[in-house]
Amino acid sequence: IAGITQAPTSQILAAGRRMTLRCTQDMRHNAMYWYRQDLGLGLRLIHYSNTAGTTGKGEVPDGYSVSRANTDDFPLTLASAVPSQTSVYFCASSDSGEAGHTGELFFGEGSRLTVL
Amino acid sequence: GQNIDQPTEMTATEGAIVQINCTYQTSGFNGLFWYQQHAGEAPTFLSYNVLDGLEEKGRFSSFLSRSKGYSYLLLKELQMKDSASYLCAVKDSNYQLIWGAGTKLIIKP
Question: Does the pLDDT value for residue A98 go beyond 60?
Fold first, then answer.
């Protein structure tokens, strides 16, 4: 049972470099999310996708982009990394966020990114 | 603005009971979640409340009062493995989750 798989687990990156964090789920969930988690702050939503082919901006989207070409994959790209993007990134999925569904989130194990 | 408040840190003794409070102010309400997160790990789902009252699940219970914008997570018969952060999250009128910063629970022998 895989659930949600994120890669890499950890990465140190030079400022200005491009980086893609990968996320794959095998639960056939419609909705997927990318969060960042920083000490003392709650999880902050970067981007989300309610279904394959659609994406939306969350609370902190600047400097990040996503794509959702199919149900299973939801990569997050940092076009030109900056030190303030040093964080732990969590990918998550849910069956649906709307009425009639709990919308419980299932999280990947996280990707710890350090930008120097 | 939307806001979720939880205590930053709590300490309790093994075998005891602890209550973690969460108050919220959000644009609409479509449910409240509690997640557990051990250090260095991903959050995992604990409970979901959408109607007022108490939901019990083993040693853990979660309570909701929508009129007061208030919830609590009650942990009984505390074990050392319960040392973790507990995250409160509310689903707003757009079905987006608003997260609290989490409560770090320290269990002492």
Answer: no
